[in-house]
Amino acid sequence: MTDRPGPLARGRTGSHGQTLVEFAIVLPAIVLVVLGLFDLGRGVFIYNTLAQAARQANRTAMVDQDVNRVQAMAMAAAPSLGLTAANVDVCFKTFDSSQTSCSSPTTDNCPQTTRVIGCQAIVTARLTYTPMTPVISSFWSSIALSSTSIEQIEYVCPYDLHPDCP
Hints:
Elements: H1 7-10, H2 16-63, H3 67-77, E1 88-93, E2 120-129, H4 134-139, E3 143-152
Antiparallel strand pairs: 1-2, 2-3
Helix pairs in contact: 2-3
């Protein structure tokens, strides 16, 4: 009788090191994909919250055109984002204007003194998103996110009776 290994033992000699090397090669790719998915989820959450804040603030602007109250509503609608008044633009324009943002100084062409039902309220909420994954943040250090909501004014709040407005 000879001391030869059986058929099952023959294929396994020396394969333990190969599995470890394959795992070491694949592990960084798996970790990168998982962390990238977390970053993508965070980005989608932040964008959705930002869009909700703009919509909620615009609902306020439809019946109460006080810019400070509209900005406060946007900040209250997204407490996890840490929005400030500088991150929220509010302006009003006539219904026939083609502008859809508050970036132009002439956008606010529906001033408080001549504001009527049908003027449009524009609320834009902006935030800069920074990915937490080091590899992804090396490609995109920050991503500017913004959401704009445009609705028609349904009620013009009288300026002298402002504390009683809804």
